[in-house]
Each structure stands twice: as structure tokens, then as C-alpha cells.
Amino acid sequence: MTPEAPSATTNIASARFSRLKNLLQTDLDNEALNALRESGVIVPAVDQNLALCHYARGEFEPARGLLEGLYAAGERSPAALRLLVSSCRHLGLMDRAVEIADANPQAAETDVALAGVYALVYLDADQAAKAMRHARTTLGLNPDSVDGLIVRDTEAEHLAEKGSDAVRHDGRSTADDAAPGLN
Length: 183
Prior knowledge:
Elements: H1 8-24, H2 27-38, H3 44-56, H4 60-72, H5 78-90, H6 94-103, H7 112-124, H8 128-141, H9 146-161, H10 174-178
Helix pairs in contact: 2-3, 3-4, 4-5, 5-6, 5-7, 6-7, 7-8, 7-9, 8-9
């Protein structure tokens, strides 16, 4: 059986994604956004887009600086929180990442990407119950979420290493049962 050729819609979406990725990784975006900031146009969208440019290039400290400013100004969108928490995680600022996630759990209830980042942060911070709660949210929103699968399977492996039979068929673990208020 021969695989079907990609549809025109798939080709257009792929081309748009490639173009966006290339734009985010160019200095032109940074120059244009910085020019807006220098001219006195300081709006959250400019800072968030500039932070995204830095993040896409692996420049987590400048991204975090911009995002911390947005956070201090009250910005709590899932996209901004995801970039901020993930930047903190990449920089090894786990206490700050956990602090932000703890203060904004509701934002991850319906956003698969943010729930996945929270799950990874809590996993890295050895907070299994919170990691599993966010992994379940992530997998509930997208059963193929890589972040959710990583956290679920890592926790299952940890429990197996401890000789526990606590990973149940419903995806919950004894870590969930140990902290029922977090379910």
C-alpha cells in the first residue's frame, strides 16, 4: 500500500510553520521588536513576542527577563506562563518555576502545553503527586502528549524501582493517593 501524498492544506500548514520558525530564529525579528521598544512602544505583545524569539533561539535568560516583567505586570496567559516556567526550568531555576506553577494552577487546566511544562517542572522538583496530576491533565487533553507520557512513564519507572505495584490501570499512582487533595 502506497502512502497518500500530503494534502494541499498540509503543505500550506507545513510551509507556514517553516516560515514562522525561520522568522523566529532571525535577528530581523529581534531588531524590529527592539526598535518598537526603543521608540517607546512597550506593550505586552511586543515583549511576549521578543521573549518568544529569544526562547526559540535558546536564549533563556533574556526570554526570562522579559517574561518576568510581564508576570510582574500581571500577565497570566497560558502562553506567557509556559514560556516563563520553561525558561526557568532550562536555566535551572527550579524554585522559581515551582513558585510560578504553584501560584497559577488553574491556567494549566485547559492548556495542554502549559500542563505539560508544569508536569515536567514538578517531576524535576521531585513533587510526584503534582507531576502526575498535571500529566493526567495533559494526557486527558492530548493522549499523545510527549510531556505527559514522559512524566507518567518516568513516575511508573520510579515506583517500579521501589518495588511498588502502585501504578494502576487508570494512570494514577500511590503518589496520587498519598496526596488526595491534589487530585
